[in-house]
Design a protein that fits this description.
Blueprint (H helix, E strand, L loop, with lengths): L2 E6 L4 E8 L3 E9 L1 H5 L6 H23 L8 E7 L3 H18 L3 E5 H7 L18 E6 L4 E6 L5 E6 L5 H11 L6 H9 L32 H14 L8 H29 L4 E5 L6 H10 L5 E4 L10 H12 L17
Helix pairs in contact: 2-3, 4-10, 5-6, 5-7, 5-8, 6-8, 8-9
The structure holds 5'-O-[(R)-(carboxyoxy)(hydroxy)phosphoryl]adenosine and zinc ion (ZN).
């Protein structure tokens, strides 16, 4: 039996968790800074770093207490190394290094992006990742920072089939909500506002999906582009604006429903096309936007019966440390520890 302490500080959540044997989450504590950043309409990296500094110690202590274990019983410390905001990452990484050194524990630097995919296997899925029938596995990681399709083969080899060439899907929802004056973070607010609205009332663009007169370049088949949707929203608002320059309230619900629909439609269509073309046996949907009910229902409705659909549990979609501690166990098992001089990184290594 091994216990891993996970630590996460890549964006605006300070999180710590204790995970047993890679799957069983004994505690998962998240201190959100959302309220602190909301007044700025988005995450401010330096503010995030300062907040992590304040929150890390109590969050780690809380995770140990909730799990009913002491630091002595922890076998290794896994920490998010990147990708993410460098000032934010550095605080968590330095904290984890100090904790590892001070307590004589091995350190494991974890990739936040892969951890999001792993989050879909926490709690109940012991053995699924070891089962050859799970592969090839296609993962859609869709958050405020990423929109990416990753293919993972049975031998563990992973390759990115495509990603966004501009904004991430979550970013498009966040920026759309900001433009409409709805607040931050936009994803959950847009979902709530869209409820009961007509998703086909307005036609927002579906970039990089091809269509009449616009053949799609093969290299963009699995790529995404979401910045055009946001610009279309700006024109839509201008076109319908009342004397106050704002979108009339009675158009808001259908507008948001149609905007959300464009994002969901592109995400599901591209993922299901990739799943078909690469013969995927499993589709994983993870990251903050995977919380979205319309996206989840669409995947449930359209995923073919012979493909196993694994939607990450909502609590493991948004940033958390259970996914970090869980993934860290797989390194611990092989004693693949990190040196104490590891650095943070902002982007996925190419
Ligand atoms: O994974 P995450 O917590 O942080 C990043 O690594 O980016 O994802 C945050 C993103 C934000 O863009 C937020 O608006 C979006 O996830 N999000 C949602 C929902 N809940 C969070 N988007 C759509 N619908 C939701 N219910
Ligand atoms: Zn994330």
């Amino acid at each position: 039996m091994s216990l891993i302490l996970g630590i996460e500080s890549s964006c605006d959540e300070t999180a710590a968790a204790v995970v047993r044997d890679g799957y069983q989450v004994l505690s998962s504590c998240v201190a959100s800074q959302i309220a602190k950043h909301a007044v700025h309409g988005g995450v401010v990296p330096e503010l995030a770093a300062r907040e992590h500094l304040v929150a890390l110690n109590p969050v780690v202590e809380g995770a140990l207490r909730e799990a009913g274990v002491t630091m002595k019983e922890i076998d290794a410390i896994a920490v998010t190394q990147g990708p993410g905001l460098i000032p934010a990452l550095l605080v968590g990484l330095s904290f984890a290094k100090g904790l590892a050194m001070g307590n004589g524990k091995p350190l494991i630097g974890v990739n936040h992006f892969i951890a999001h995919i792993y989050g879909a296997f926490l709690d109940e899925a012991h053995g699924v990742l070891e089962n050859p029938a799970t592969y090839p596995l296609l993962a859609l990681v869709v958050s405020g920072g990423h929109t990416s399709l990753m293919l993972i083969e049975r031998d563990g080899k992973a390759r990115q089939l495509g990603c966004t060439i501009d904004d991430a899907a979550g970013e498009a929802l966040d920026k759309g909500a900001k433009l409409l004056g709805l607040g931050y973070p936009g994803g959950p607010i847009m979902q709530k506002t869209a409820e009961g609205g007509d998703p086909h009332k307005y036609e927002f663009p579906r970039p990089l999906t091809g269509g009449a007169g616009k053949p799609l370049a093969p290299e963009n088949l699995y790529n995404f582009s979401f910045s055009g949707i946001k610009t279309a929203l700006l024109y839509h608002v201008k076109h319908h604006a009342g004397a106050d320059g704002k979108l009339p309230a009675e158009l808001l619900q259908d507008t948001v429903a149609s905007y959300q629909e464009a994002v969901v439609d592109v995400l599901t269509r591209k993922t299901l096309l990739a799943a078909k073309n690469f013969g995927a046996k499993t589709i994983v949907v993870a990251g903050g936007v995977a919380c979205n009910s319309v996206l989840r229902e669409r995947f449930e409705a359209l995923t073919p019966k012979h493909v196993q659909l694994r939607l990450a549990a909502r609590k493991y979609c948004t940033d958390n440390a259970a996914m970090v501690g869980g993934l860290g166990w797989h390194y611990h098992r092989k004693q693949a520890y990190s040196p104490l001089n590891i650095d943070s990184f902002a982007r996925l290594p190419q």
